[in-house]
Structure formats: structure tokens, C-alpha cells
Amino acid sequence: MLADLLSECFATDLEETWERERTATPVRAFAVQLKMRVDRFHNSWVGSHGSVREWFIQFVQYYNFQRPHQALDGRTPVEEATN
């Protein structure tokens, strides 16, 4: 009796599941939007590989030596490493 009830319940849920319209999940939509933003950034960079390298070096300097980090109680990574 219990087995019959469970199989009937499962069959009903399975049929309802297949009948529902399938749409993109919020996670999928977010991933697509993020990829579009990354692609736009990559395609909009104006400059040479040397300018990208220089920008990156300056960013790393800022990130490690000037920018206070919340996880480090407002200290920079360099301050954390030297203490």
C-alpha cells in the first residue's frame, strides 16, 4: 500500500515536472550577464600589451601597498606581512 502511494506520488510529480515550462535559472542569467561584462571590458581596452602590463603593475602596487583591506582591519597586505 505504501509502495503504491509512493509510486503514484512520484509519477504525479514527475509528470508535473516535465509539463512545466523550462526557463533559465537566475544563476544562469547572472553568469551570462557577467560574461557579457567581461567580454565588453576585454573588447574595449584601447592600448598595447605594454600598457596593459603597466596598468596591472600599478594596480598590484595600489592593492598591496595603499588600499586598506577590511579583512585585515584596515591594514594593507604589506603592513600585515611585516608585523
From TrEMBL:
<protein>
    <submittedName>
        <fullName>Uncharacterized protein</fullName>
    </submittedName>
</protein>
<dbReference type="GO" id="GO:0015074">
    <property type="term" value="P:DNA integration"/>
</dbReference>
<dbReference type="InterPro" id="IPR012337">
    <property type="entry name" value="RNaseH-like_sf"/>
</dbReference>
